[in-house]
Design a protein that fits this description.
Elements (H helix, E strand, L loop, with lengths): L2 H41 L11 H25 L4 H21 L15 H14 L18 H13 L3 H25 L4 H19 L3 H21 L2 H11 L5 H9 L7 H17 L1 H43 L17 H36 L29 H15 L5 H23 L12 H26 L6 H17 L2 H4 L1 H9 L19 H12 L7 E4 L3 H5 L3 E2 L14 H12 L4 H9 L8 E7 L2 E9 L7 E9 L8 E6 L2 E6 L1
Parallel strand pairs: 1-2, 1-3
Antiparallel strand pairs: 3-4, 3-7, 4-5, 6-7
């Protein structure tokens, strides 16, 4: 590539990337305003609980229809080439309003997000509480460790909570909904820069709907699901560029004059795929900063794309060589066997390495961009790990194999509207695999999901998994996007077969709109368990949103007050040993032990800590316990938060029992009360709890 061509492509790259970035920023601002205003409005009314009334369900449907109407108007304006900026604003506002009303209205009467503070959502809330208390990247639970789970989403959540003055647990819901609204609109902007604008609105709406239905409980991974489709199109466009092979062959051919070459070099119409390279690299970096599993899937998919692109490019080079060979043979026969160096195949068709080198260069560049972004989150952990300060032991994050993880997900054969849509998408992917780059990119993504699931099942033979069952949401999103293309192209084909009846387009549009409404209004039902849990869990204020008696969580405020009083230290300087780890999700104390080994930092030595706790419980006197605490391999607890059982204090702990399902076994460790009958401990009974503080 000449210096002139490089400069021209750089200019195109800056112009295109700058335009897309500016549009994405403006769209994100619109989405944030729409989501913020909507959530504020919802919070101003005393709504009935979702699990006790149908009022919020009805209002959710009304809001969804209104949001979809905005999208329909936007598509009509786009197709008639009218009021371009109004169509953009309507599409941005419609997508963000859809997200806000679909999640915000069902949860309007509770301060908790989907799944409340139960199970997985408990440790996520704890992480957000930790990074609300401090902007420094730190493990969610252990006082002396950097984070193992990527903190990108949670770090921004902590800044949102600090800015709004909310506690971490309370900020979780509005922050999650707001970020999903912004991500959905940014995905729309990406789609609109890659495909037709009217199709982009439809594809973004479809992928947003299925992501909310099947990925919203895990809000930080849902952000990646929304962006996955356009990111794969970018990656495929960067790696597979057959037009460049043809162009190089033409420019190297004898008889191509310098003026043609100069024109090509002087006026590049694209950035040569480097904009797509940077875009794909940024997505990989965000994935690494947000969610390790989806980062692994994305890297696997992009590498699979590179292999397929290399095979296809070599095949096309082979075809070009064969064509050139026949042309040279014909030229020799015409000229009586006279041939010169300029007519040899090697002079016009690039060599094999010349074909593969751009693919490898772009893949490496993606990795560099992703790596630089990932290091902003992973550097503290890598430094500790490489320094040898802590042993890497006890990590069991991949030790989970539910029944769904033992079979391939096949949503296209579910008897439902979503299943039919996924089936339509699958058919389109297969039919258009040879002619559509969109189908190729999305199809490789679907293939990668299934290969990952198979590898996850195979990994069980090695005593672990790759958590393949968690790939349902990305699969739905990819097939949903394909379903939109399948519906649009299928409807056009039927329209032509039927000799273009006058009202067919209107009928097809009506079917699409009614289908969208039908699926949208079912989303709260799909999330019924998650929404109900948000109402039945007791929040950090000690209240249940369904107005029923709260759980023991209602005593947390009193426990917090006593801890501050008796330790005389701030929360982030105190380590608490407790089995009621939701206390650590509400208040930013550090824990001596995590909820389960699956959420524990591998550097924390979860099994070793569990054994140490059991050893403490078997000691015979307060003096022995004090000595054991003082000589603990880890920072010892400053306080214990127990449950009472007769003459004992109990902790309900957990151990990993994979490959069993459930993969967690609960067991009780009992401490005799006499171990704390000493002046060096202060015991306070608060509700069902006993708080023991070391002096």
């Amino acid at each position: 590539m000449s210096e002139r061509e490089s400069g021209g492509r750089a200019a195109v790259l800056v112009r295109q990337a700058g335009g897309a970035l500016g549009e994405a920023v403006l769209a994100a601002v619109v989405a944030a305003v729409v989501a913020g205003v909507g959530l504020f409005a919802f919070s101003r009314v005393q709504w009935p609980a979702f699990n006790a009334s149908h009022v919020t369900k009805a209002l959710t449907t009304v809001g969804q229809v209104g949001a979809l109407a905005m999208l329909v108007v936007a598509v009509v304006l786009i197709r008639h080439h009218k009021w371009r900026w109004l169509s953009k604003l309507l599409s941005w506002g419609g997508i963000s309003a859809f997200v806000t009303v679909t999640l915000g209205m069902p949860l309007a009467a509770t301060k908790l997000y989907l799944f409340g503070m139960s199970v997985d959502q408990e440790f996520r809330t704890q992480y957000l509480t930790r990074l609300t208390d401090s902007a420094s990247l730190h493990d969610m639970n252990y006082i002396d460790l950097p984070p193992f789970y990527p903190g990108g989403w949670f770090w921004f959540g902590g800044r949102f909570a600090s800015l709004t003055g909310m506690a971490g647990w309370e900020a979780f819901k509005p922050y999650a909904i707001l970020v999903l609204a912004v991500a959905a609109v940014v995905a729309l902007v990406l789609w609109s820069n890659l495909i037709r604008a009217d199709w982009a609105v439809a594809v973004a709406a479809a992928t947003t709907a299925v992501t909310l239905a099947y990925g919203a409980p895990e809000a930080y991974s849902a952000v990646l699901v929304l962006l996955l489709g356009p990111a794969l199109l970018l990656a495929w466009g960067a790696l597979y560029r057959p037009a460049e092979l043809a162009l190089r062959s033409v420019l190297a051919a004898p008889g191509v004059d310098a003026s043609t070459t100069d024109t090509v070099e002087r006026e590049p119409s694209t950035a040569g795929g480097w904009g797509a390279v940077i875009g794909a690299g940024l997505f990989l970096g965000v994935a690494a900063s947000f969610y390790t599993l989806y980062f692994g899937l994305a890297v696997f998919t992009v590498c699979l794309m590179a292999v397929i692109a290399a095979v296809l490019m070599l095949r096309e080079r082979h075809g070009a060589l064969r064509t050139q060979h026949h042309r040279d043979a014909a030229a020799r026969s015409t000229s009586g066997g006279q041939t010169g160096d300029a007519s040899t195949p090697g002079a016009r068709v690039p060599g094999g390495w010349a074909v593969l080198r751009p693919i490898l260069a772009r893949l490496i560049t993606m990795g560099l961009v992703a790596g630089l972004l990932a290091l902003t989150v992973w550097t503290p952990f890598l430094l500790d790990f490489l320094s040898g300060k802590a042993s890497f032991a006890g990590g069991s994050a991949f030790h989970y194999l539910p029944e769904a993880g033992s079979r391939l997900p096949l949503p296209m054969f579910d008897f439902s509207l979503a299943g039919a849509f996924c089936l339509l998408g699958l058919i389109w992917l297969v039919v258009r695999a040879g002619s559509s780059r969109r189908a190729q990119a999305l199809g490789i993504g679907v293939l990668a999901v299934y290969l990952w699931c198979l590898l996850s099942m195979l990994a069980t033979a090695a005593g672990t998994t790759l958590l393949g069952f968690r790939l349902e949401a990305p699969l739905y999103a990819l097939l949903g996007a394909a379903g939109v293309f399948g519906f649009a192209e299928g409807a056009r084909a039927v329209y032509q077969v039927l000799n273009e009846p006058a009202r067919f387009r209107l009928a097809a549009g009506a079917v699409a709109i009614v289908g969208a409404v039908a699926f949208a209004q079912e989303i709260p039902q799909v999330l019924n368990t998650e929404i109900n849990t948000a109402y039945t869990d007791t929040d950090g204020n000690g209240q249940r949103a369904d107005k029923r008696p709260p759980s023991a969580v209602s005593h947390y405020a009193a426990i917090d007050a006593k801890l501050l009083e008796q330790t005389g230290r701030p929360r982030d300087a105190t380590v608490v040993l407790t089995a009621d780890t939701s206390f650590l999700a509400v208040y930013p104390y550090y824990g001596f032990q995590s909820l389960t080994s699956h959420y524990a930092n591998p550097l924390a030595d979860f099994p070793g800590r569990a054994a140490e706790i059991k050893r403490w419980s078997q000691l015979q006197s307060p003096a022995e316990l004090v000595s054991a605490l003082e000589h603990s391999p880890w920072r010892a607890p400053d306080a214990f938060l127990f449950r009472r059982s007769g003459d004992e204090y109990t902790l309900r702990l957990a151990e990993d029992v994979y490959p069993n399902d459930p993969n967690v076994k609960r067991y009780t460790v009992s401490f005799p009360k006499r171990l704390f009958e000493d002046a060096r401990f202060t015991s306070t009974e608060i509700g069902p709890f006993t708080l023991v503080v070391r002096k």
